[in-house]
Amino acid sequence: MRRKASSSVVVSLIVVAVVVAISAAYIGHQLSAYSAQVSELYSAVSSLNRTVASQASAISSIASQQQSIQSQLSSLESSTRFPASAVDATGQQIVVYSEPTRIVSLMPSDTAILFAVGAGPQVVGVDEYSSWPPCLSALEANGTVKDIGSGWYPDPEVILSARPDMVFGVSSVPSNYALKQQFAAYGIPVVLLPDNTIEDVLQSIYTAGRLTGHTGTAQLLAENVTAELSYAEDSTVGLNRTSAALIVWPSPIWVAGNGTWEDQMVTAAGGSNVFSNVSGWEPVDPEALLAARPQVIIYAAGHGQLNYSEFISTLYQELGPAADSVPAIASGRVYAVTGEYNDWLTEPGPFVGDGTILLSVLLHPEAYGMNYTSIPHVVSPDTLRLPVPASVPVINTPQCASAVSSP
Amino acid sequence: MRGGLLHLLLPVFFALSLFLGPYGFINPFSHGLGAFVLELRLLRALAASLVGLALAASGSGLQALLKNPLADPYILGVSSGAALGVLTAIAAGFVWPLAVSLSALLGGLAALALVMAVSSALGLTRTSMVLVGVALSYALSSIDMIIMMDLGPAVQGSLAWLFGTVAYALWGELAYAAPLMAAGAAWIFLRAGHLESLMLGDDVAESMGVRARRLRAEVAVASALSTSAAVAVAGPVGFVGLVAPWIARLGSGGAFRRIYPLSLSLGASLTVAADLASRFVEPGGMAPLTSITALMGAPVLVYLLARWRG
């Protein structure tokens, strides 16, 4: 009985051993299969890694290709900017075969338009009255830009000493025509920009942009001007028109009359020009102010002319006590506009839109939640902040750093 | 022949005018821009010479014709008439040199014709004719001023021209103005002999076969022709027509035929020198030619008068 029991133990032990052996063998087999799978998996992962790496390098090579294509495109684009052509105020078709790099500007409005469309680095000479952008004086000081003296009486030889390949003037100055004819003999185009109306200013922006290779910026600038004009118009729409006199020179009193861009600005700003019976820019008798009875007098005080109190005392000297019968004088709505704001009212340049907003504030402060008593008599960027319309393309003041570094 | 040396002034000033300017000295054999500047200087010097010559011719002719040493195209209203022609053209919107020049010619001729017509209608003496000219000159200058005020800022450009300048001269302008100026000057020279007899009095002249009325008309037209052509090129440049014949007379003396060429050469030198000075008086600012011809001519005249009296 004991033997039987022990033998059954042995048998069961053997069975267990066999089972264990079999299962161990099975497990071992399985394990090796797993490890093969793992190593397969490893190799698959590493091959995947390799693929990914090769893909990445392919992608980066595609990216670099894209970059080179882009640069080729932009160089192609810049090469397609020229030849460029535009018709100037004289009706002459001006064709430019390569980018002008030595531009001379005869008028402050030309200079402002050129810098605003981004052609600043190409400018090598400006007239004595050009003052915008503010960094211009630094360029003149370090010799990058030459002061060519008067643009009203330009000296051809002084302009030539700046070695220009293009000159910008305006259509309202006869001597600029004379210069155009002279320089035509040597093939230096003198572009006369029209400067009578706001439409002229927009035309000038497009023309200057096209001929200097800055069509895109010019387009943006024109949109900026147009949007600012409609902003001023929309803000004052439906209000009673404020009668206004715009005085561009104090003694004798010169006013902006009918057919001027200033007259259009007054209208767009919700005003009515009391001197719209005068055509162009004209000196008027001081007594004309008594007859015209403007509600607001806006005096562009310029640089170093009469200041506000001198201007007021001149009015009293010339009109006597009768001056008080002029509503603008009686109610204290006489404004001397100085600083950069003055240029907005005296230069047919990129700021006609801003100038119109300024006028709309002076003529209709109520449209902007202001009272006219809160507006200072001396109006400048320091004394009066203007509303900034949303949704108007922003034109940044050109910085001259790039211009300084370029040869 | 102390007057003969004065002829040398013209080539001297002409040469200086080619070599001096805001652009600096220019090698005569340079190419490109330098050559163009040189060409502009040559054009200026030629224009100034011709303008000075024409004004001196006109002044000499009028002085002999009217037997009045104060006669001068500027004083007689011919220059203001031509200037009125120019301003009218600009006011009407014609700013191109050709239109401006033709208009100047019409204005100048009309002014002198008016002076002569009024004088002969009133039966005035030739001395009084200068007075009619002075009156007309003032009237025309006033109209010029009114038109200028009316033109507004645009006129500031033509203002430079109104004071006289040869800076904007063009070959094309000179090409048709030069023959007119030369023709006027030559016409007066061809009548020099007759003018000398006329100076002795109408009766003497008539007895020598000179038809006084016709001679006066001829010299007047010749003067107006050369003055208007000069105004068309450079604007109304004053003082040259008055002072050049006087300097010639005081510097050389003698008969009209002898003084006349010297007066032309002196008129040319004075204008060329004035243009040269204008480049440096206010570089880039274009000093008006008339003020400089007066500044340079007046002391010379006074000096010569003082020497002549003493």
Count every beta strand of chain A, where a strand is a DSSP E run of 2 or more residues: 14
Which percent band covers the strand fraction of chain A? Answer: 5-15%
Number of helices of chain A: 14
Question: Strand count, sense and closure of the main sheet of chain B?
Answer: none
Mean pLDDT of chain B: 84
Helical amount among residues of chain B, as a percent range?
over 70%
Q: N-to-C terminal Cα separation of chain B, in Å?
A: 20 Å
β-strand amount of chain B: under 5%
**Biggest interface pair, counts:** A-B, 32 and 36 residues
Cα-atom radius of gyration of chain A: 38 Å
Our Rg estimate of chain B from Cα atoms comes to: 19 Å
SSE string of chain B: HHHHHHHHHHHHH
Structural class by helix and strand composition of chain B: mainly alpha
Please bin the fraction of helical residues of chain A. Answer: 40-55%
Order of helices and strands of chain A: HEEEHEHEHEHEHHEEHEEHEHHEHHEH
Q: Provide a count of the helices of chain B.
A: 13
Report on this structure.
Chain A is α/β, with parallel strands linked by helices. Chain A contains 14 helices and 14 strands. In chain A, the strands form 3 sheets. In chain A, strands 8, 9, 10, 11, 12, 13 and 14 form a 7-stranded mixed beta sheet that branches. In chain A, strands 5-4-3-6-7 form a 5-stranded parallel beta sheet, with helices on both faces. In chain A, α6 packs antiparallel against α7 (215-236), α7 runs parallel beside α13 and α8 (261-268) crosses α13. The radius of gyration of chain A is 38 Å and the shape is elongated. The model of chain B is unreliable at 153-157 (pLDDT under 50). Chain B has helices spanning 9-19, 32-66, 78-91, 97-122, 126-151, 155-162, 171-190, 192-199, 202-207, 212-234, 240-251, 256-281, 289-309. Chain B is mainly α and 310 residues long. Chain B is globular, with a radius of gyration of 19 Å. The chains are: A alpha/beta (407), B mainly alpha (310). The A-B interface holds A 128, 147-150, 152-158, 160-161, 163, 172-179, 181-182, 185-186, 254, 280-283 and B 21-24, 33, 36-37, 39-41, 90, 95-97, 149-150, 152-154, 156-161, 165, 167-168, 170-171, 279, 282-286.
